[in-house]
Design a protein that fits this description.
This protein is an alpha/beta fold and 258 residues long. It starts with a strand and ends with a helix.
């Protein structure tokens, strides 16, 4: 009963062999994969993917535009980058029956520098998630403190902090607010995520791959089939059996998304 709440199946490294990727996940015992969009074009692609494969669910996102432009320039992804925030929000709203979450969204001060502009859009997305009563999957690169501030000030609900790299004080604050954390499979060698998994109650933990990135196997592209590595490490840290960890995390997924 494994789950991957954050992956990017539209990325060329996965999409070009999507049938194989999904079949690998099924063989590994993955019951649900949430593929996340970052703008209008990727939201559309992920929606189509979710309609084709029974274990794939769609999350539609709105990544900070200034950060996304830089990433698109550097790696050539995503394609056809949209700049119309209102159009993107309307597309998500119009397809609310087809999605399981809003994501990925948030703040990125590593690639983007327009902090106030990012916060303005983030607040709009939080309001959308509340209106739709959908979980919100949040990115917080080099912006962890501001992300928690904005979420709290805007009464965000059903929050999943994706790959959260904030300091222990922020982790504990977010946990106290009731937010959940999705732990990536590279926890096998990441001290940051090992500490996070230790400090946060198991009932607030989920698992993700962020594929094709953050692989637990160095030199190998990540994919949802590798999510078991995250569960194994969480079980070790919590000193419980892998099966118990798997079951509890799956129940967390059900409570959050279903």
């Amino acid at each position: 009963m494994l789950i991957d709440v954050h992956t990017h199946l539209d990325h060329p490294m996965l999409y070009d062999r999507i049938d194989e990727i999904v079949e690998n996940a099924k063989k590994a015992g993955v019951k649900a994969i949430i593929t996340n969009g970052v703008d209008l074009s990727t939201n559309k692609i992920n929606l189509e993917i979710s309609k084709k494969y029974d274990i794939v669910k769609c999350a539609m996102g709105l990544y900070p535009k200034d950060a996304l432009r830089r990433e698109a320039d550097e790696v050539g992804y995503p394609k056809n980058l949209s700049e119309d925030i209102d159009e993107e929000i309307k597309f998500i709203d119009d397809n609310k029956e087809e999605i399981i979450a809003i994501g990925e969204v948030g703040l990125d001060y590593h690639n983007g520098k327009d902090k106030e502009g990012q916060k303005k859009v983030f607040k709009q997305v939080i309001e959308l998630s509340k209106k739709l009563d959908n979980p919100i999957i949040v990115h917080s690169r080099k912006a962890e403190s501001d992300v928690i501030d904005v979420l709290e000030e805007n009464d965000a609900r059903k929050v999943i902090l994706h790959c959260f790299s904030g300091k222990k004080k922020l982790v504990l604050r977010a946990a106290k607010l009731g937010y959940s954390f999705s732990i990536p499979a590279n926890i096998v060698f990441s001290e940051q995520f090992q500490i996070l998994a230790k400090e946060v109650p198991l009932k607030q933990l989920l698992t993700e791959t962020d594929a094709p990135w953050l692989s637990p196997y160095k030199g190998k592209a990540n994919e949802p089939a590798f999510i078991s590595e995250a569960v194994k490490k969480i079980a070790d840290i919590k000193e419980i059996s892998q099966k118990d960890a798997e079951n509890i995390i799956y129940m967390n997924y059900q409570k959050m998304f279903l």
